[in-house]
Amino acid sequence: MENHDIDIVRKLWNLCHVLRDDGISYQNYINELTFILFPKMLAELDRESELPAKYFWKELIRKDGTELHDHYRQMLLDLGKSKNPKVAAIYRNASTSIRQPTHLHKIVSAIDELDWHSTVGFGGSMIWFGSSAGVALANILRPESSLIAWSDS
């Protein structure tokens, strides 16, 4: 991994401390961050049209408090029923264990500051902060693990 990749990994793992403070177990860190990272990735790839407009990244970061928390929980439910089979596969039966709206806002804000696109190039060198879950997700989206053309398949 390059230094920038390592920095992103460190920042994402630091967000896990916020999740832990909210009572979320280690096993759920990847799910929680994946559900939040995916709309951010689509925004950076100019692929948000794969989602309903109300779930675009800019809509998520514009909210705060209980409004953000309620919007996020509804997003997980709705995207799990998406007509796009790839989006539905990611969010099927998704739920959040984040209880504190302030923790969700902190995570969303921190992810918004990440320059994710230049780090991974969405090709998989550092998918999901070194996790096998990221590789599995990339394989769901595109066999070549390239998220750039994920909606073309």
Explain what the structure shows.
The protein is mainly alpha-helical and 153 residues long. 61% of the residues lie in helices and 0% in strands. The protein is built from eight helices and no strands. The longest helix has 19 residues. The chain is globular, with a radius of gyration of 14 Å.
List the helices and strands and how they pair.
Blueprint: H1 3-21, H2 26-44, H3 57-61, H4 65-79, H5 85-91, H6 101-113, H7 116-120, H8 132-141
Helix pairs in contact: 1-2, 1-6, 2-6, 4-5, 4-6
By secondary-structure content and strand pairing, the structural class works out as: mainly alpha
The helix content, as a percent range, equals: 55-70%
* Beta content: under 5%
Sequence of secondary-structure elements: HHHHHHHH
Total strands: 0
Low-confidence regions: 120-133, 139-153
Spatial extent as radius of gyration: 14 Å
Number of DSSP helices? 8
**Mean pLDDT, rounded to whole units?**
74
Largest sheet: none
- Measured between the Cα atoms of the first and last residue, the distance is 28 Å
Short note summarizing the structure:
Helix content is 61%, strand content 0%. It has 153 residues and is mostly helical.
Which key features would you list for this structure?
153 residues; mainly alpha; disordered C terminus
